[in-house]
Amino acid sequence: MIKKNRIAGEDFLHLKENDLYRIGLPLDSARTIIQLIKKISRTSDRSSTNLVYVFIDNLNIWIEGKYAVGNLERLGTFDFDRNSYYFKQLQIDHGRLLTTVQCGRKLGGAPFLVGSEPSPNDSLWARIRDQGFEVIFDRDIRSHREKKIDTLMSAAETIMSNDPGVLVLIASDRDYRPLAEYALKYDWTVETWFWNSGPDLTEKNKVLEVTDGNVIQSLKNEDVLKWFNTLNLFGWWDWESYRAMRFYFNNLNYMETVKNWILHNYQEVQIQEKH
Prior knowledge:
By secondary structure, this protein is of the alpha/beta class.
């Protein structure tokens, strides 16, 4: 009917509901087309808000992280099927993860997680509440694949319902490539964050290794998390096989600041720099 009346381009976007009735479209079809026109109009010629919308495939990042960290540090058991180390003790603090991907930017909506739920002690909950949101978490017992499909649909709805922003996907890019292409089509910026599968070949990262049996052994997980949150750190610690903490930096000046803070508050520890 629209083709018959030679309505195209901007003329189509200017159609009103009464116009569609007048050219003979049924009521339901006319309303559907009006909704489509509204969506197209909202998504055209919109400037970026630079707000960040985060989607985390938690199971994906947790499993692959065990291999990535295992290879990076030569930790854990060796998986001959994947020709890779596997560090099964890996734990992820999602609050630190969120801080890393936000890079100081403002959230546009609540982060969406699919997969296993972070622990109640995870700093994620407080960080999200401080920004005025609650985490959207899928607790359904369906398969991970089904949840992933729902995540894709939720992300697509976010793209259609909001002005262009920054879509942050913490997942393997091959799994979410169609979503990334969809977002780019509507003038969104897309960032994919995932594990590096090997060591830092550029040698840009700096490492502080903190050791000392007595001091380290007296610390609890909660104490170490305070270090991480206070100093805005990224790193790992392992209580089982090696009494040490290791922190990573891509900024030499900040590494020195952290080193001085630790030595001031814990004078007994030994710190070794690894460049």
